[in-house]
């Protein structure tokens, strides 16, 4: 499966409390259950009016279908080509 970064524009998402985030995760999980093994949620980062989500998926169409089922927009989908961190420098 390929790794994707999904930018979702969701006004006010950064103001959600723990229950609101729990409800959002449940909604996403319900959509994932309908899609089977074609798409997997790895993690998400929540900022003021967006989330940045890392997913494993067969292709972009699987991510778009998850967005349709969950109601969470996939404003931008980018395939992750590589990962780096401070250790990548080899110092």
Give the overall shape, derived from the CA principal axes: globular
CATH superfamily: ORF SCO4226, nickel-binding ferredoxin-like monomer
Strand-and-helix sequence, N→C? EHEEHE
CATH class: Alpha Beta
Q: Give the distance, in angstroms, between the N- and C-terminal Cα atoms.
A: 31 Å
What is the count of distinct domains?
1
Strand content: 25-35%
Q: Characterize the main sheet.
A: 4 strands, antiparallel
| Rg of Cα set | 14 Å
Structural class per helix/strand content? alpha+beta
Low-confidence stretches: none
Second CATH tier, the architecture: 2-Layer Sandwich
Question: Strand sequence of the main sheet, in spatial order?
Answer: 2-3-1-4
Helix percent band: 25-40%
Q: What is the fold named in CATH at topology level?
A: Alpha-Beta Plaits
Distinct helical segment count:
2
What's the average pLDDT? 96
Quantity of strands, as a count: 4
């Amino acid at each position: 499966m390929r790794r994707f970064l999904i930018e979702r524009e969701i006004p006010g998402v950064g103001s959600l409390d723990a229950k609101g985030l729990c409800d959002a995760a449940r909604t996403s999980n319900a959509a994932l259950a309908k899609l089977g093994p074609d798409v997997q949620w790895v993690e998400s980062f929540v900022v003021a009016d967006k989330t940045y989500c890392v997913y494993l998926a067969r292709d972009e169409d699987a991510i778009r279908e998850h967005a349709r089922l969950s109601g969470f927009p996939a404003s931008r989908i980018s395939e992750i080509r590589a990962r780096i961190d401070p250790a990548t420098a080899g110092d």
